[in-house]
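Researcher: We're reviewing a set of sequences before deciding which ones to prioritize for further study. For each one, I'd like a predicted 3D structure that I can look through quickly. This is Alkane 1-monooxygenase. If possible, include the structure in token form so it fits the rest of the review sheet.
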Amino acid sequence: MVPATEVASFRHAVPYWVSLLLLPLVWLSATYGGWALLLPPAGAWWLYTALDAVLGRNSDNPDLETRDADLFWYKVITWIWLPIQVAMIYGTIWYVTGSDHLTGWEKLGVFFGVGVLSGSVGIVYAHELLHQSDRFERWLADLLLATVLYSHFRTEHLLVHHPWVGTRRDGVTARYNEGFHRYFVRVLFTGLTSAWHAETAKLARRDLAPLDGANPFWRYWALQAGAAILAVLVGGWEGLGLFAFQAIVAIWQLEMTNYVEHYGLTRKYLGDGKYEPVRPHHSWNADHRATSWQFINLQRHSDHHYKPARRYPLLQTYPDAEAPQLPFGYAAMGFVAMVPPLWRRVMNPRVRKWRADHYPEITDWGPYKRGEFPAPELR
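Model: Here's the predicted structure for Alkane 1-monooxygenase, in token form for your review sheet.
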């Protein structure tokens, strides 16, 4: 166990600031185009995957008695990322639309790199912030999500995904044998609608209409409209197109991670519309050292679902027998997911072993695969 005094130290927190090292790569891609367009994705994906191969896994758990007040240096990087991301997105729009050294395809390449950062960093930080009770942090999450036009993710994640992970109610839980590309199209539609239904059901329990001012979708729409208008003001219609393109890339990054996190894992149906509680074995873990720095411990996903309010520096990892482990970090597994036959070859045997280890009493998984058990009621 890592003692609380060490967890609280600046030295221990610094590795989680690696996202700052990716920013110069966007600047280089916008300045030079051509080969430099590879730098942001190479830094975000391949560099830390390679470092995982060198540094291996980190099975040390931080002391849970560490005080929240002692986690300042971990919080700061998530707090300052909003102004950094705003400057990155709109500064690059201003620069690219005002220059003539890049072709149209190169401009898209630059904003592919911007989307890689706003997705693999910005949305990950927003995810951490939206789980906190502090209003300042939740507002930072809303503003970050607005810059990628995915504000409803907060509702969908908190009101649908966490309560119903591993059931058919949760569209984000990737189904056994479901390829990523089919999954991505499905969640783009089901995520928005399930978020809307969750909020309107919540309002109905207070005898409020769906379009009541208390519905956070008003805030989501206003923030996203403001983000899009700013793109037009900075770069005209071309700027708006580039802004939308980076948002699509960022959303793709998010959903690629979502796909990896729960593929094929289901909660046991208990009858009468009830499912077993969420346990650590209902998420795929990847406690690889370098990519855990990059994704601020999101890869310790089993503990995140077990204790959703726990801040990222205190997330625990588990022995393989308690939580299923992925062979690589999330970045590498995302690329395996891009090739469905390869993904099934890597992951399906692991899912079958998981079933045998945790549910030897279930001999027929057909009803789970076909979604024949009823979806749980929204709370």
